[in-house]
């Protein structure tokens, strides 16, 4: 199955507004404290860059990145979660905020949470841009969620189909090509 860029689900303006709301919530919680924000590559790269800039200077923010793989080049979970790139610095005793693009089956964040808790952080919270509750196989508590969406494959604003379309500024539905031949 191949896809094309379908309708806009969330515009740049809607995303901007929601990201600044989330930034304010995070700022209130961590005002005067240290916070290590862990962006999950590659899907959360764009969201991460916007969310950290929405956090107030009163929070002492450090940025880290991890890369995990749970999906191949398709749209379905392989169930397995592999750590392809780990944290660079120790996080023991630190407040952690994991920033992820989307909570789908839940396996990626479930495993990641287990993995990070083993490192004995002072606290661990999760911020996702999107959540697809209909797809959940394992429950994961998230502390900040941008938007709840239906069970549709989405692209743009960091999200890809086979590495395509991460750079689109808005979030779109990925539309199967068969549904619109010749366009
Ligand atoms: P799980 O199933 O582990 O999946 O919660 C999280 C990862 O799945 C990918 N994913 C998507 N990527 N459009 C995408 O571009 C989607 O609609 C979508 N749904 C799940 C994503 O990489 C995420 O990190
Ligand atoms: Mg992906």
Automatic annotation (TrEMBL):
<keyword id="KW-0808">Transferase</keyword>
<dbReference type="GO" id="GO:0004422">
    <property type="term" value="F:hypoxanthine phosphoribosyltransferase activity"/>
</dbReference>
<feature type="domain" description="Phosphoribosyltransferase">
    <location>
        <begin position="13"/>
        <end position="161"/>
    </location>
</feature>
<comment type="similarity">
    <text>Belongs to the purine/pyrimidine phosphoribosyltransferase family.</text>
</comment>
<dbReference type="GO" id="GO:0006166">
    <property type="term" value="P:purine ribonucleoside salvage"/>
</dbReference>
<dbReference type="InterPro" id="IPR029057">
    <property type="entry name" value="PRTase-like"/>
</dbReference>
<keyword id="KW-0547">Nucleotide-binding</keyword>
<keyword id="KW-0963">Cytoplasm</keyword>
<dbReference type="Pfam" id="PF00156">
    <property type="entry name" value="Pribosyltran"/>
</dbReference>
<dbReference type="GO" id="GO:0032264">
    <property type="term" value="P:IMP salvage"/>
</dbReference>
<dbReference type="GO" id="GO:0032263">
    <property type="term" value="P:GMP salvage"/>
</dbReference>
<protein>
    <recommendedName>
        <fullName>Hypoxanthine phosphoribosyltransferase</fullName>
        <ecNumber>2.4.2.8</ecNumber>
    </recommendedName>
</protein>
<dbReference type="GO" id="GO:0000287">
    <property type="term" value="F:magnesium ion binding"/>
</dbReference>
<dbReference type="InterPro" id="IPR000836">
    <property type="entry name" value="PRTase_dom"/>
</dbReference>
<keyword id="KW-0460">Magnesium</keyword>
<keyword id="KW-0660">Purine salvage</keyword>
<dbReference type="InterPro" id="IPR005904">
    <property type="entry name" value="Hxn_phspho_trans"/>
</dbReference>
<dbReference type="GO" id="GO:0046100">
    <property type="term" value="P:hypoxanthine metabolic process"/>
</dbReference>
<keyword id="KW-0328">Glycosyltransferase</keyword>
<keyword id="KW-0479">Metal-binding</keyword>
<comment type="pathway">
    <text>Purine metabolism; IMP biosynthesis via salvage pathway; IMP from hypoxanthine: step 1/1.</text>
</comment>
<dbReference type="GO" id="GO:0005829">
    <property type="term" value="C:cytosol"/>
</dbReference>
<dbReference type="GO" id="GO:0052657">
    <property type="term" value="F:guanine phosphoribosyltransferase activity"/>
</dbReference>
<dbReference type="GO" id="GO:0006178">
    <property type="term" value="P:guanine salvage"/>
</dbReference>
<dbReference type="InterPro" id="IPR050408">
    <property type="entry name" value="HGPRT"/>
</dbReference>
<dbReference type="GO" id="GO:0000166">
    <property type="term" value="F:nucleotide binding"/>
</dbReference>
């Amino acid at each position: 199955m191949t896809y094309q860029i379908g309708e806009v689900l969330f515009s740049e303006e809607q995303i901007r507004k929601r990201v600044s709301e989330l930034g304010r919530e995070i700022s209130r919680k961590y005002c005067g404290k240290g916070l290590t924000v862990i962006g999950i590559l590659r899907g959360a790269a764009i969201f991460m860059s916007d969310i950290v800039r929405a956090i107030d200077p009163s929070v002492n923010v450090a940025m880290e990145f991890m890369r995990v793989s749970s999906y191949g080049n398709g749209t379905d979970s392989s169930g397995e979660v592999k750590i392809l790139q780990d944290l660079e610095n120790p996080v023991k005793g630190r407040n952690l905020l994991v920033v992820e693009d989307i909570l789908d089956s839940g396996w990626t964040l479930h495993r990641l949470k287990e993995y990070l808790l083993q490192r004995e952080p002072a606290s661990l919270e999760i911020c996702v841009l999107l959540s697809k509750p209909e797809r959940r196989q394992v429950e994961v508590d998230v502390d900040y969620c941008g938007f709840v969406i239906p069970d549709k494959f989405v692209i743009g604003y960091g999200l890809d189909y086979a590495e395509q379309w991460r750079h689109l500024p808005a979030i779109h539905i990925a539309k199967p090509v068969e549904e619109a031949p010749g366009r």
